[in-house]
Write a structure and sequence with these properties.
two-stranded parallel ribbon, two-stranded parallel sheet, single chain, mainly alpha
């Protein structure tokens, strides 16, 4: 999928793409040529390929403890910083089956400017 996205971005300068989970991206990245990596770096510099959230994965109930959430995000953020010099600014949890109430605070402490999510417990929704 990532190869197709990069190819299409290079064909059409009007297109942009947002990516979330760094583990899958890092596996793809390690198999790319220097030429492809340079092209992706340019797409990032041009603001056409952006990373949001930036965790190793998009954690949900599988990372129920705040230390697991922090570690998951740290690994992904560290990879992005070390390899691409990128620091995500937006939190993104549109697919996980729930999230901890600790997420908003942790994401704020990570420097996120906003956080988007889709699934909300009905009791939490009623309270909000």
């Amino acid at each position: 999928m990532i190869t197709t996205v990069v190819d299409e971005l290079l064909k059409n300068p009007d297109r942009k793409f947002t990516y979330v989970e760094i583990k899958f991206f890092s596996m793809w990245w390690d198999q790319q040529t220097n030429e492809t990596q340079a092209a992706v770096r340019q797409l990032i510099a041009d603001g056409r390929f952006e990373f949001v959230n930036g965790g190793w994965s998009m954690h949900d109930e599988a990372c129920p403890h705040y230390e697991d959430m922090i570690n998951n995000m740290w690994v992904g953020h560290q990879w992005l910083l070390d390899v691409l010099g990128v620091k995500p600014r937006i939190g993104w949890h549109v697919d996980p089956f729930g999230h901890s109430s600790a997420n908003p605070r942790l994401f704020t402490d990570m420097g996120f400017e906003a956080w988007f999510f889709a699934r909300l417990d009905y009791q939490d929704k009623e309270q909000r």
